[in-house]
Write a structure and sequence with these properties.
74 residues; single chain; 64% helix
């Protein structure tokens, strides 16, 4: 199995911030998130509390705000 792993490029796992940026970029390019659980997972890993009843649009707006805050503090 080691020979198979050598064929694959080694990639670092994405940080929550990278996942959030990718999500927002995809949405801004016209994509629609289809899985609310993924959006909620990204938000939670950014440190946001997310209700299972929250609208996905609201969670995405909160992710945008969290990214702006981290950009301003960096």
């Amino acid at each position: 199995m080691n020979w198979f792993k050598k064929l694959l490029p080694h990639r670092q796992p994405l940080t929550p911030e990278q996942r959030a940026h990718d999500l927002i970029a995809a949405i801004d390019a016209g994509g629609l998130p289809l899985n609310a659980a993924v959006v909620n997972d990204i938000a939670r890993k950014l440190g946001l509390e997310v209700s299972t009843r929250a609208r996905m649009e609201d969670t995405i707006a909160r992710i945008r705000l969290a990214l702006k805050r981290t950009k301003n503090h960096a």
